[in-house]
Design brief:
Blueprint: E1 6-9, E2 15-25, E3 34-37, H1 70-79, E4 81-83, E5 90-92, E6 96-99, E7 110-118, E8 121-127, E9 134-141, E10 147-149, H2 150-160
Antiparallel strand pairs: 1-2, 2-3, 4-5, 6-7, 6-10, 7-8, 8-9
The structure holds zinc ion (2 copies).
C-alpha cells in the first residue's frame, strides 16, 4: 500500500485527499505554512481522528510533543495529569518513574503507568525501558513513597557528570 496519495473520510464527513504527495497548508488559524498531508504532519495517528488527535494537518511549529496540535496536546496533558491528594505534587502519567534518588540506567527496569487504577490512584507496572514490556507482575501505587520521572533523573545525571 502506498502512502503518497489516498482518500480519507474525516470525522466531520469531509472526503479529502491525504498522503505525503498532497500539498496543503497548516490548519492552524492564521498559519500559511506549506506542508503536505503525510503522517509527519498529522495530529494523532489516524487521519480520521482518534484518541490521540483530531486528524488535522499542521506545520512543525504547530505540532507538539507526541505529534499533536495545540488543543489536542493540551487535552492530553490534562487527561494525563495526576495530582497527589496529600502532597499536591503533579505527575504526568506518560512519564516513566523511579523511586526518588535512584539512578537511571537504560538497561534497568522502570515504573510506568499502563492505564490501570486502584480507586483514584494510578498503578505503576515494572517494565523494561525499551518496549515497555513488563519484567514481572509487581505493581506499585504512585501515591506510595516518592517518585521521580526518568527525564528529571537523566537530566540530573547528565548535569552532574563531568
Ligand atoms: Zn489535534
Ligand atoms: Zn502552522
Amino acid at each position: 500500500m502506498g502512502y503518497a496519495r489516498y482518500e480519507i473520510i474525516r470525522a466531520n464527513g469531509d472526503r479529502i485527499e491525504a498522503g505525503y504527495a498532497v500539498q496543503a497548508i497548516c490548519e492552524k488559524d492564521g498559519c500559511n505554512e506549506q506542508i503536505d498531508r503525510g503522517l509527519a504532519h498529522l495530529c494523532g495517528k489516524d487521519p480520521r481522528g482518534d484518541d490521540h488527535g483530531c486528524g488535522g494537518y499542521f506545520c512543525a511549529n504547530h505540532l507538539y510533543g507526541d505529534n499533536q496540535c495545540e488543543s489536542c496536546a493540551a487535552k492530553a496533558d490534562e487527561v494525563n495529569r495526576w495530582v497527589h491528594p496529600d502532597t499536591g505534587e503533579e505527575f504526568d502519567l506518560r512519564d516513566r518513574f523511579l523511586p526518588a534518588g535512584a539512578r537511571y540506567d537504560s538497561r534497568s527496569p522502570v515504573w510506568k503507568h499502563q492505564g490501570e487504577w486502584r480507586g483514584e490512584v494510578p498503578v505503576l507496572a515494572h517494565v523494561l525501558p525499551q518496549g515497555e514490556r513488563a519484567v514481572d507482575t509487581e505493581t506499585r501505587l504512585l501515591s506510595e513513597g516518592e517518585w521521580e520521572d526518568v527525564g528529571r533523573i537523566v537530566y540530573r545525571q547528565m548535569t552532574q557528570a563531568s
